[in-house]
Amino acid sequence: MILETPGDERVVQQDDYTRWYLQDADRVVHSESYENGYHHYRRIKIVCALLHRAGVRRVLDLGCGDGWQVGRLVRAGFEVIGSDLSAVRVRRAREHVPGARGFFVSDLRRPSLPEASQDCIYLGQVLEHLPDPVAVLRSLRASLRPGGYLIFDTPCRDNLVDDLLRWFGFHRRYPAVLEWGLQLDPGHIHFFTLRDLQEMLGVSGYELVFTRGAPRLRWNTPRIGNTLAAHRNLWIVHDLIEWILGGLPRYRRSGAIIVCLARRPIPSLP
């Protein structure tokens, strides 16, 4: 169990990543854009579905930002604690989600978590920002109880739009179109494939349980995708397209955003 503590950014090690993140927290509020973005609606819906399927009740959201994800998890019936590197974002999250069990300031690269203390850790739109994501995954594994779950979502190269661009050869003429995952946010420094994530989880000591595309189709395409995804009354149409794509094995497991559920293995009895 983690008790809520006020936290202080002064105790966080100041490096280039920390300085960039704290500056970003001062000028960007994510909760409004998340609320109005179809891809964020879709990914948190799939996260909640997989956690319910796994029988999870308590979740630690590391890198919780302004608390939008925590709020969605709480509404879905989970007991949630949130943590973020920025005290500014933690204050916003606390105001945004009074129903959470608590919030605290910490650097998820070096979290002060007791060993084998967590049932489930969630990293929502986090891995693509980290200088060394494998080191973070290895560190967090020690904080999970045996059989405990790690769930995360991140942009992914394995999606229908990018596949079509490659099949028709547009990537040779316009190579930048396939690097959209790095262009979404100035803080994105990684853009993964499903195979990349499988290998990272394997070397970090996890068992991969499920992956799901969420969304499977890349909606942040210029003009058409962004326009359609901005209209909430069309989201039911998007959901139908997502359901159809789910019948194709490649896009059932992957998409423009991928949700991965993994767990710390339970040691076998001698």
Would you give an account of this structure?
It is a single chain. The model is unreliable at 1-9 (pLDDT under 50). Strand 1 (58-62), helix 4 and strand 2 (79-84) form a beta-alpha-beta unit. The protein has one domain (9-263): Vaccinia Virus protein VP39 (Rossmann fold, 3-Layer(aba) Sandwich). The protein is built from 13 helices and seven strands. The two termini are 30 Å apart. It has 270 residues and is α/β, with parallel strands linked by helices. It has a seven-stranded mixed β-sheet, sandwiched between helices. It is globular.
Main β-sheet, in a few words? 7 strands, mixed
Oligomer: single chain
Which spans have pLDDT < 50 for at least 5 consecutive residues?
Answer: 1-9
- Report, as a whole number of angstroms, the end-to-end distance: 30 Å
**Name of the CATH superfamily:** Vaccinia Virus protein VP39
Structural class: alpha/beta
Number of domains: 1
Q: How many beta-strand elements? A: 7
